[in-house]
Amino acid sequence: MKKKRKGYLQRSLDSVETIGNKLPHPVTLFAILSLIVLLLSAGLSQLGIRVEHPGEEGKMVEITNLLSAEGIQYIFSSMTDNFIGFAPLGVVLVTMLGIGIAERSGLISALLRGFVLSVPKRFITLGLVFAGIMSSVASDAGYVVLPPLGALLFAAVGRHPLAGLAAAFAGVSGGFSANLLLSGTDALLGELTIAGAAIIDPVYAEGMSIAMNYWFIIVSVFLLTVIGAWVTEKIVEPRLGEYKGDYREKVEKLTAIEKKGLIWSSVSIVVGAILAALLVLPEGAPMRGTGDQPIISSPFMSSLVPIIAILFFIPGLVYGMVTREIKNDKDVANQLSDTMTSMGMFIVLAFTAGQFVAYFNESNIGLVLGVYGAEFLQNINLTGIPLIIVFILIAAFINIFIGSASAKWAMMAPVFVPIMMQLGYSPELTQMAYRIADSSTNIISPLMTYFAIIIAFAQKYDKKMGIGTLVSTMIPYSMFFLVGWTLMLIVWMLLGIELGPGAPIMYE
Fold first, then answer.
1. Which GO BP annotation is one of this protein's (predicted)?
2. Does residue 22 surpass a pLDDT of 80?
3. Do the Cβ atoms of 173 and 275 come closer than 8 Å?
4. How far apart are the first and last CA of the chain?
5. Average pLDDT over residues 248-258
6. Distances in Å between the alpha carbon of 203 and those of 65, 381, 421, 454?
7. How do 50-52 and 60-62 pair as beta strands?
């Protein structure tokens, strides 16, 4: 029997998978990039390239040879500090201590189930996409909880379960950079952006906050919820047709003890929020700043990481105690330990990524690239909105091959943040453009960490489900998210609205 020829989409996806699988692990990739920077620093330093420092008039900067005697001494003497000083390391670990308790005590799962089950039938799709978007506060927990829950929910009301799975997956992954709350993603990417900005203007970087995109991501929640629901009901569900499978199952309702846990954890959230507000809002509050913007430029804003961790830790602890998931301090310690165990790969990645970022900065390659890159873009007249669109498309394409948002931004931020600053665009804008690109194409990348898990969930309802089928199902979400989100950013730029507290569009 003649073998059926694969379609163009399937062949393209196979090529993406083959190329992506040939890329080294991110840990190895950063080690290779570190070596490349060392070699480049030695070669470029011999060319005598010099540029004027953009932030200090009259100061000339040249490439530092990291393979000279002094450079080799720096490599060995700074290795530990490069690891410890890697900007996102402490930020992510501290944040995850709080979020980890909320996740492992069962609070996050109960909140998601309770929300989805309480939504009226006509708003199920909207509620499911919204819950997916909001799940990013618990890092990757949404990938495991919501897609199977969405499939069950749709099947329970007589709709195609794969449409429910797709809607949830679109919300969790496509909306990963939108939320009503600040999350670990803001801390992780924000610290890398601040480090990139410090290459050009350390003073400006010092005044930046991890909440730099907060206003924009709040509005993004509602935009993506509407787009995700519309794509589900108007494109994906009609294409899937009527579900004729035998699989039927009801979503488990919250138990009485889970409801009690949610009530008391909600009370603790309100109390915690009030206490946090009292630290910064009243005149003379200990965490309130001075000057014209006492809240934006305050110790409170520069302490958001531990505050976020505490605001997750307390309700997670309360929920666990009420439901008896946490019986004593040993349970708390074990759950915190389990959370840190799950961060092992990130810690290893931080070591090699920390070396790369440090070598890149020490060599001044980033600074020189920023100056020359800005001049090149100015010479070809690629500025303004076309520049932002091109950057988004480049980042979206790279995301298909490298799934880790932090790994990509650790590589891209030291290059693109300085270039954009040279052209007059703020680091905050560059980061938001990157986040739009990264989130929008997560759901069509076969190399995304949880892609295989989503396929496994889907095969419960369709045994023939494979990479091509899932990607073809998710492409409408990806395209509409990318276009709609980019248009929103363009409108935001034209109106000149701050992206977050003290986060302008333009860099002066």
1. p-aminobenzoyl-glutamate transmembrane transport
2. no
3. no
4. 68
5. 76
6. 26, 29, 13, 44
7. antiparallel
Task: Provide the sign of the torsion angle of the four alpha carbons 361, 192, 391, 443, taken in this order.
Answer: positive
For residues 210 and 301, give the distance between their C-alpha atoms in angstroms, rounded to a whole number. Answer: 8
Ranges assigned E (strand) in 393-464: none
Distance in angstroms (rounded) separating the CA atoms of residues 488 and 158: 35
Which of 489, 366, 361 lies closest to 428 in space, CA to CA? 489
CB within 8 Å of 159: residues ≥ 6 apart: 237, 243
Please give the radius of gyration of the chain, using alpha carbons only, rounded to the nearest integer: 24
Neighbours of 292 (CB within 10 A): 7
> What is the reported pLDDT for 1?
46
- Closest Cα partner for 468 from 3, 2, 7, 4? 7
Q: Is 364 left (phi over 0), alpha (psi -120 to 50) or beta?
A: left
225 in Cβ contact with 444 (< 8 Å): no
Q: Distance between CA 213 and CA 115 in Å, rounded?
A: 26
* CA pair distance 163, 156, nearest whole angstrom: 13
Sign of dihedral through CA atoms 53, 212, 194, 287? positive
In the three-class reduction of DSSP (H, G, I as helix; E, B as strand; rest coil), residue 207 is classed as coil
Query: How many angstroms separate the CA atoms of 22 and 11, rounded?
Result: 17
Q: How far is CA 305 from the centre of its chain?
A: 15
Contacts for 193 with CB less than 8 Å, ≥ 6 apart:
208, 212, 409, 413, 417, 427, 428, 430, 431
Length of the chain: 508
Q: Please spell the DSSP secondary structure of 66-95, one letter per residue.
A: TTSHHHHHHHHHHHHHHHHT-HHHHHHHHH
Helices (H), 364-404: 365-379, 384-401
- Phi then psi for residue 423, to 5 deg, are -90, 0
For 48, left (φ over 0), alpha (ψ -120 to 50), or beta?
left
Residue 471 has pLDDT above 70, yes or no: yes
Per-residue model confidence (pLDDT) at position 94: 83
DSSP H/E element including 60 = strand 60-62
